[in-house]
Structure formats: structure tokens, C-alpha cells
């Protein structure tokens, strides 16, 4: 059976953070991208991390976790280009779970639930927490050509909007599906706990 592949988008430039946020340690010492990768590996059959040229140190850390790595030459074009690069590298997948490397707090059980929704026939699946759709978002192979044609910085939003009636929401009790890291203060444990209360 073909695998459900997690596509870990780790090719951003971290401009708002002011440094390489993906290699920044979390309060417990794990690197941001390493934790996101580990969680994605726990909930999917395989992970392909998409990194930018020059990201060899990060690539090595992600390989050490068990992920395959794809260097995306077009990473500067934005998230859409990175996502397309990842999907084109794993065209044989039974589906893709698109995850962001700056979202290290998503529970593996949530990721597994989204993957299971794809396995049971969903065209698009996403976790849903307290009335809001979160990450990662899963896509069936039927939408592979749409994803592989993306470019620029819009990511998969256009694909989701074009097929909104086929979106299956997976209700979860996981605030991590909405929590990303844009600025250094997003790493503050008090901010994290306050946002989830």
C-alpha cells in the first residue's frame, strides 16, 4: 500500500523572527523543526522535509530524525513553490499531510487522525479545534496535480478554497494545530499556556 507522506515545509526565511527560528531551541531543548518533524513522523508513514539551499545543517538534523530531505531551489518564491517541490518529489504517495516546521506543538495523535481521514477516502482533511481549522492539512492523490502546480507564497489555500465542499474537518482537542512561531516571544511558555486557556 502506498504511504501517507508528511511534507514538512522547512524552507522559510524566518524574516519576522530575526534569526533561524527552525533551529531555535524550544524551552525543553529540542529544536523547533526537529520537534515538528518528530511529531509528523509519529503520525504518518514517511516524512519529506523541504529545506532551502544553504540549509544543510538543518537538513542533517532532520535526516537524523528519520526524514528524507528535498532541497528546494525555488524556496525564495514562497511556500507554494516549496510545497509543489515536495509533492513532485513523492508523486507515488497515497496522500500528503502538509505541515509547517514552525508548528512544533501538534500532537502526533492529531496528525494520525488527519492521515486516517485520508485513508478512509477524504479528498482534503484538516484538524478542527474550537471552531477553527488548523494544521496539518491532508490531500488525496487526486489533488496532486493541483499541488504540484503551485508557486509563489499562497501555499495550498487556493486548492482548499477550490475544493471546499470536499474538506473533511477532524475535530480534535489540540490547540497546537493553531500555534506557530513567528517571533521570539511565541516561544515563551507563558504565552503558549495563556493562549490555550
Topology diagram in text:
Layout: E1 4-10, H1 32-43, E2 46-51, H2 56-65, E3 68-71, H3 79-89, E4 95-100, H4 108-119, E5 124-129, E6 132-133, E7 137-139, H5 144-148, H6 157-162, E8 167-171, H7 189-195
Parallel strand pairs: 1-2, 1-4, 2-3, 5-8
Antiparallel strand pairs: 4-7, 5-6, 5-7
Radius of gyration: 15 Å
Q: Helical amount among residues, as a percent range?
A: 25-40%
Question: Runs with pLDDT <50, length 5+?
Answer: 189-197
One letter per element, helices H and strands E, the order comes to: EHEHEHEHEEEHHEH
Helices, by number, come to: 7
Q: Compute the separation of the termini in Å.
A: 41 Å
The average pLDDT value, as a whole number, equals 89
- Please give the largest β-sheet: 8 strands, mixed
Q: Which structural class should the secondary elements be placed in? A: alpha/beta
Beta percentage is 15-25%
Oligomer: single chain
Mass-distribution shape: globular
Compute the number of strand runs: 8
Amino acid at each position: 500500500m502506498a504511504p501517507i507522506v508528511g511534507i514538512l515545509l522547512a524552507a522559510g526565511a524566518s524574516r519576522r523572527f530575526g534569526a533561524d527560528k527552525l533551529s531555535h531551541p524550544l524551552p525543553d531543548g529540542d529544536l523547533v523543526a526537529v520537534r515538528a518533524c518528530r511529531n509528523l513522523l509519529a503520525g504518518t508513514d514517511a516524512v519529506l522535509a523541504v529545506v532551502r539551499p544553504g540549509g544543510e545543517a538543518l537538513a542533517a538534523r532532520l535526516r537524523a530524525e528519520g526524514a528524507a530531505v528535498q532541497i528546494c531551489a525555488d524556496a525564495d518564491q514562497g511556500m507554494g513553490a516549496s510545497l509543489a517541490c515536495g509533492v513532485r518529489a513523492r508523486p507515488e504517495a497515497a496522500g500528503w499531510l502538509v505541515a509547517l516546521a514552525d508548528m512544533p506543538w501538534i500532537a502526533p495523535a492529531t496528525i494520525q487522525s488527519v492521515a486516517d481521514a485520508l485513508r478512509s477516502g477524504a479528498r482534503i482533511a484538516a484538524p478542527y479545534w474550537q471552531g477553527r481549522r488548523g494544521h496539518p492539512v491532508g490531500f488525496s492523490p487526486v489533488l496532486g496535480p493541483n499541488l504540484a502546480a503551485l508557486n509563489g507564497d499562497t501555499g495550498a489555500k487556493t486548492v482548499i478554497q477550490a475544493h471546499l465542499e470536499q474538506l473533511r474537518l477532524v475535530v480534535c482537542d489540540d490547540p497546537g494545530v493553531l500555534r506557530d512561531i513567528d517571533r521570539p516571544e511565541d516561544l515563551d511558555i507563558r504565552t503558549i499556556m495563556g493562549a490555550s486557556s
